[in-house]
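haha ok so turns out i had the wrong file open the whole time. this is the CORRECT one, sorry everyone. sequence first:
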Amino acid sequence: MRAIAPLTPEEAPEKSRELLEGIIGRHGSAGDMVATMAHSPALLQGYLDFSRALKRVKLPRQLSEKVSIAAQGWIGCGTCMAAHTAAARAAGLSDTDIALAREATATDPREAALLTFAVRVLAEPASITTDDVTELRGHGFPDRTIADVVGLVSLNLLTGSFNLVAGITPDED
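then structure:
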């Protein structure tokens, strides 16, 4: 059930109105989550800035989508899972790759280690030790990748949590 309704630019607070109008001007529409985030200009601005910044991660697109799918498998946001599954398919991932990512694993042991780490960042960050980071380095992941994964997980937590609280569900098309 929908708990928070999306806003049109006319209904939104001034700063959110400006942001929504800019998005609509560039893309034709703002999307349900963004229009709903418009209730909070601070949240909307923060989400847009964070999302834009994380487009510059140095992970291959397929691996980035696997991280997002693993995170959303734990968070439980159907809207985010549907979006990341579609993006994963568009990036060339197979149904098997997607199913494994939902379980935070992969056929490649390196990727499996990174996906397990991603879910631990989400579910139990206090349990992560320097040995865990050293293990990822041993799999060939540089510190930048490790930091990027923390950022991707954080963005997924924001979007998944917001959608669940607002009651945003995947389209039934």
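The CA atoms of residues 71 and 119 lie 6 Å apart.
again sry for the mixup
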